[in-house]
Amino acid sequence: MQDIKNLKINMEQKILESSKVVIVPHNNIDFDAIGSAIGLSLITKKLKKASCIVVNDPIYKIDHGVQLIIEEAKKEFSIINREKYLEQAVSDELFILTDVNKSYLISLEDKLPNNENVIIIDHHATDDNTVDSSIKYIDTSVSSASEIVTKILCMSKIKIQQEIANYLLAGIYLDTNKLSKNASSETMRIVAKLMECGANLNTVTDFFTEDFISDRRVQELVNRAKMINLSIAIVSADEEEEYTREELAKAADYLLKYKVDASFAIGNIDDHIVSISARSKERVDVGQVMQQLEGGGNQYSGATKLKDCTVEEATKRLKKVIKPSCYINS
Ligand SMILES: [Mn+2]
Q1: pTM of the model
Q2: Is 71 exposed, middle or buried (0-12, 13-18, 19+ CB in 10 A)?
Q3: Which domains does the chain show, CATH number per domain?
Q4: How many angstroms is it from 33 CA to the middle of ligand 1?
């Protein structure tokens, strides 16, 4: 357990010393990345420091609910793409990476300042590609980056407006599969704080309401699931179809509704690129399984991308690395 008080103190000081704060969520932005990024913008605003959130995903690739949040939040905060950022870049900027720690998952990898001017707030495991930073708070036992940022907001006694409380709750909601996994008593305390600020589970659930066509596509993936043994489900998508990583992740998530310990969804996400999305309840460490296939993640969720590979080949490779030793305490 790292000291969040130290993070708060060091981060505030660093924000005040810098000319501007650049908040960098991960590519393929999701509810946790945007919610925590907006929470961080609120902190910089209270410290009277200019900030921007850099989101460089093409709009059609962004989840519908996340798009709604971005559109709403733009009224109060600066949310810009990489190109716009480059036009406005100044010296002595502070970068805050949120919900991410690896260089290849951000849109400004080539623009990172030296480690003195980088802060990382994350809940994903680190590896060789973790960005070098002098101030960081990376705790894989915390549900989400939104949980960490909410904690800092509460410690700073910053009033969280209702809309922002909803965004932060949406982040926690996503990464805990609707508060059903990886939600500790501390997570629930933070959820209660957000509800005291006016966050509402109905509003948050509405953010997750599916677009009909996309949901049908996810269900088609779910229909292809096969149980490779009694407790692991694998979806191998149609070789001819292209899916988004989000759709694969949703299919894997959906399969956890059943009596399975872990689920994997495999499909093409681009020409000659196959992605695997992995989810687990708690008995199988899927992050470790994905690591064996050039990917990563944590105990509950993981993913990988395989180049020049077919769905069939990826399925074979996955089956080879799923062994009894993937079970925790086995
Ligand atoms: Mn997250």
Answers
A1: 0.72
A2: exposed
A3: 4-207 (3.90.1640.10), 212-326 (3.10.310.30)
A4: 6
